[in-house]
Amino acid sequence: MAAAEGEVRRDMWGQEYRTSSADCAAALDAYYAAFMSFGRGRVAAVLRASAADPTCALAAAHAAHAVAPRDPAGAAAFLAAAKDNLLLKQFPRDILSLKRAQLICFYLGKPDLSLKFVQQVLPKNQDQNFIYGMLAFPLLELGRMDEAERAARKGLAINKNDFWSQHNLCHVFQQECRFREATEFMESCSPSWEACTSFLLTHNWWHVAVCYLEAESPLCKVLEIYDHNIMKELEKSDCEAAEVYLNALGLLLRLYIRGHIDSAKERLTTLLDELKNESIWHAEWLLDLLILWALASMSELKSAHNMLESLKSRVRSMDRNQQQVMQKAIKLAEAAYEYGKGDHMKVF
Question: Which InterPro entries match (predicted)?
Answer without folding.
Answer: TPR-like_helical_dom_sf, TTC38
